[in-house]
Amino acid sequence: MSFSVRLSTKAYLDAKEIVEWYNNEKTGLGADFYTHLTKKINSIKKHPFFYPEIFNDVRQTSLDKYPYHIHFIVNELENEITIYGITHTRRNPEIWKSKI
User: Fold this and answer.
1) N or C end: fewer C-beta atoms under 10 angstroms in the chain?
2) Is the pLDDT assigned to residue 92 strictly greater than 70?
3) Quick one: the chain helix, strand, coil %, rounded to 5?
4) What is the CATH number of the domain that holds 33?
5) Residue 8 sits in which domain range?
6) What's the number of domains the chain is made of?
7) What percent of the chain has pLDDT over 70?
8) Nearest C-alpha neighbor of 73 from the set 7, 16, 2
9) DSSP per residue over 18-58, as a string?
10) Residue 83: Cβ within 10 Å count
11) What is the pTM of this model?
12) pLDDT band at 90 (very low <50, low <70, confident <90, very high)
């Protein structure tokens, strides 16, 4: 089964803010973050049910190199995955709920 992936506006803004922050820390670091994020999103697209549900159909995975979680919901009827947020692992673990 093939799924399409959609980023909510909040998730898009999360990613944009994180890339900008890393670029300000070190040239090229934002691009590296974006590469890792893209790889993880492709993994989610291929195997969305591999990742555990953490709350009411919301699934979560972590980036391999960076301290961020990706929160998403799989809609099997529409064959669509919606990413609702990308949050830092040291922030309040409940903050992602406000993004859905």
Assistant:
1) N
2) no
3) 45, 30, 30
4) 3.30.2310.20
5) 4-99
6) 1
7) 89
8) 7
9) HHHHHHHHSTTHHHHHHHHHHHHHHHHHH-GGGSPEEETTE
10) 24
11) 0.88
12) confident
